[in-house]
From TrEMBL, chain A:
Species classification: Bacteria, Pseudomonadati, Candidatus Hydrogenedentota, Candidatus Abyssobacteria
Name of the protein described by the UniProt record: Cytidylate kinase-like family protein
Transmembrane stretches, start-end: 449-470, 490-512
UniProt key word Glycoprotein: no
Cross-referenced InterPro entries: P-loop_NTPase (IPR027417)
The UniProt record lists the keyword Kinase: yes
Keywords: Kinase, Membrane, Transferase, Transmembrane, Transmembrane helix
UniProtKB/TrEMBL annotation, chain B:
Keywords: Phosphoprotein, Transcription, Transcription regulation, Two-component regulatory system
Stretches assigned to the Response regulatory domain: 6-120
Chain positions with 4-aspartylphosphate modification: D55
Signal peptide: none
Organism of origin: Candidatus Abyssobacteria bacterium SURF_17
UniProt lineage: Bacteria, Pseudomonadati, Candidatus Hydrogenedentota, Candidatus Abyssobacteria
Gene3D superfamilies on file: 3.40.50.2300
The UniProt record lists the keyword Phosphoprotein: yes
Protein name from the UniProt record: Response regulator
Length: 518, 129
């Protein structure tokens, strides 16, 4: 028999439906509220995550990691219960936690606004106006929460197996219908779906263990599990964590082997001022996703009085703040001391708020949110200083130069950026481009699509001409008697072949980019 | 208004008062702390406080009920809710019932001081340090 996950904004209705359904099917019943209580007791500040949705949708980097811990904890709890037996789960967006398992029926329960307003009026003892405001606010908060936690719109119908609207259907009939649905062969467990659940369970338990262990809680790890083998991918800026991961996962039930791999590559983004909402950030994120790369930020400024931008002894590197922020470290050898119980009142720390000069903190937070943070540095100096922070043990695949030398004139900015590009390309040995070139070189948009169409038409026209004009062409190519004809033919071929090669090469390159194949 | 800001903190964990009281004394607040909400209600019957800081989950009386009582008796008093088990719904309920603000644990005393300063400003008290 399948598991049933009910999602709804109305806590009351989902609870009633889930309890009735569980009773009819002889299942256990589990709700989100129980799981978040467990998570809070385990030290995950769920309340802070919830309130952050109301107060500040742009979460701090610290909360972004807590979000990962929360998801790991809840997923593991659901998997553990799923391995023990069948149950009906009801919550806000449980259907997004265990996706891809065919013996889970994902139900969207729709309750009318009027019903919810009436519930708020009676249960919370609110007047009508306040109840209307309450329902509207909670709806918007949940919408934001689902989008932030899972990156999806909760109303997208493809996420659910069935949507039940209670406007014209009683809860009891809705429950009877779902009981019938649970009997359908389509939702019966299969060997493949059970194996998928086992894999998800192992993966979730490994993620939970890593997220709750003080030695690995501040690292950015990606976990996958298949047939008892747990593969953990860590970021290049945290190489020391590779030694700790197997120790943390030791004794994990069902885990036969732990494999640690470093994320394949880093993209280095050098700029004076960062903004997580700019176009270059969006483009770099797309490229990083395609390459499975992390993005490392370098905020680079040149002192106005600096005479030699290429070399010399000028060194001013301030990595500490951003490194702390981005969890950059190779040292993962000692277990941090356990803090005394403080009743949820932490110590005031003066230096807790990192001064966000140049938008580095905001950008790193956004990168941590999307799991692409490669760390950050702030450097003031010359080209040599910049080169000194580029680590030899990290594999870079691209260096992107954004807006630099902002205190100089436009012409000087362009010249110095070009010179810096040449300097880095020669010494680091990876492609160096400016952020303006990202779209052209690595991404495809409308412009590229039109270009591909135009060039394809030109290539097709050329081949059609050759196909239909073979009568006059062959005598032209075959005439060996006249020297003048020979020279004209040679010149024609000399000009024609590069044109065809250029057109054909451009079409092929754009086509491969569309297929995301490079 | 130049009088000291009267603050009552109600949380069933003594450690909360131990940590918050000195942090608020420091900025010139006159702070009383209660672990028993019923005793706090009795104290509130005797004296009007400028600011009430109350935990939501407590034995005997929850923070929302306390909020309703304070709102009914002293509409000018600013109530700040604190809890370790916050949900969106709970925070919105407190807001709909007139809570001045809502803080989820864990938090730093500085976070509460910031909210208290805002509450003091709305009460016309400006000598908060």
């Amino acid at each position: 028999m399948p598991l049933i996950f009910i999602s709804s904004e109305s806590k009351n209705s989902r609870r009633q439906l889930a309890e009735d359904l569980a009773k009819k099917l002889g299942y256990g019943c589990l709700c989100r509220e129980d799981l978040i209580e467990e998570a809070t007791k385990a030290g995950i500040p769920v309340g802070k995550l919830e309130v952050a949705m109301i107060k500040s949708p742009a979460m701090s980097e610290r909360l972004a990691r807590q979000k990962e811990r929360y998801i790991a904890f809840i997923t593991a709890a659901l998997c553990e219960r799923a391995m023990e037996g069948n149950f009906v789960y009801h919550g806000r967006a449980g259907h997004l936690l265990l996706q891809g398992i065919s013996h889970i029926i994902k139900v969207r329960l729709v309750v009318t606004q009027e019903t919810r307003i009436a519930e708020a009026m009676t249960q919370l003892k609110l007047g009508r106006d306040k109840a209307v405001g309450y329902v509207k606010d909670v709806d918007e908060d949940i919408e934001r929460w689902v989008r932030y936690f899972y990156g999806v719109n909760r109303d997208k119908p493809g996420q659910y197996d069935v949507a039940v609207n209670l406007e014209n259907m009683s809860l009891s009939n809705a429950s009877a219908m779902l009981c019938y649905m649970a009997e359908l062969p389509d939702f019966r467990p299969t060997p493949a779906s059970l194996r998928a659940l086992e894999n998800r369970s192992l993966e979730a338990r490994a993620r939970k263990k890593l997220a709750l262990d003080p030695q690995t809680e501040n690292t950015d790890l990606k976990v996958r599990a298949e047939n008892g083998v747990v593969t953990v991918t860590y970021m290049p800026r945290q190489p020391g964590v590779a030694q700790i991961i197997p120790e943390v996962l030791a004794g994990l039930a069902g885990c036969k082997e732990v494999m640690c791999t470093m994320a394949t590559t880093n993209i280095l983004w050098v700029q004076e001022k960062f903004d997580p909402h700019c176009e270059a950030f969006h483009q770099l994120n797309q490229i990083a996703q395609r390459w499975d790369a992390a993005i490392e930020l370098v905020r680079f400024t040149v002192p106005p009085d600096l005479e030699n931008v290429f070399g010399g002894t000028y060194v001013e590197v301030d990595q500490s703040a951003e490194q702390a922020l981005a969890g950059t470290s190779n040292q993962f050898t000692a277990e941090p001391p356990k803090a005394e119980y403080n009743g949820g009142i932490e110590d005031d720390v003066e230096s807790d708020k990192v001064k966000d000069v140049g938008g580095v903190s905001d950008t790193i937070q956004e990168l941590v949110n999307i799991g692409r943070s490669g760390g950050a540095h702030t450097i003031r100096g010359n080209f040599h200083t910049l080169l000194s922070v580029i680590r030899g043990d990290v594999k870079y695949s691209l260096i992107v130069l954004g807006d630099l030398f902002l205190s100089k004139s436009h012409e000087t900015q362009v010249r110095l950026t070009r010179e810096l590009g040449g300097y880095l390309a020669e010494r680091v040995g990876v492609p160096v481009i400016t952020s303006d070139e990202l779209q052209k070189k690595y991404l495809v948009g409308k412009k590229q699509f039109l270009k591909m169409l135009l060039y394809s038409a030109a290539v097709a026209a050329l081949y059609l001409v050759i196909f239909f004009a073979q009568g006059p062409l062959l005598p032209f190519l075959g005439d060996t008697e006249h020297m003048q004809q020979r020279i004209i033919r040679m010149v024609a071929i000399f000009l024609f072949i590069p044109v065809v090669a250029y057109l054909y090469g451009t079409v092929t390159s754009l086509f491969l980019k569309f297929l995301k194949f490079e | 208004m130049t009088a000291k800001l009267n603050v009552i903190i109600i949380d069933d964990e003594p450690i909360v008062g131990k940590r918050l009281k000195p942090a608020l004394d420091k900025i010139g607040c006159d702070v009383e702390f209660f672990t028993n909400p019923l005793e706090a209600v009795a104290r509130l019957e005797e004296k009007e406080f400028n600011i009430v800081v109350a935990d939501i989950r407590m034995e005997g009386m929850d923070g929302i009920e306390l909020l309703e009582r304070v709102q009914a008796k002293y509409p000018r008093t600013k109530v700040i809710m604190i809890t370790g088990y916050a949900t969106l719904e709970m925070a919105r309920e407190a807001q709909a019932k007139g809570a001045f603000d809502f803080i989820a644990k864990p938090f730093k005393p500085a976070d509460l001081r910031e909210i208290i300063a805002k509450a003091a400003e709305s009460l016309g008290v400006s000598d908060i340090r």
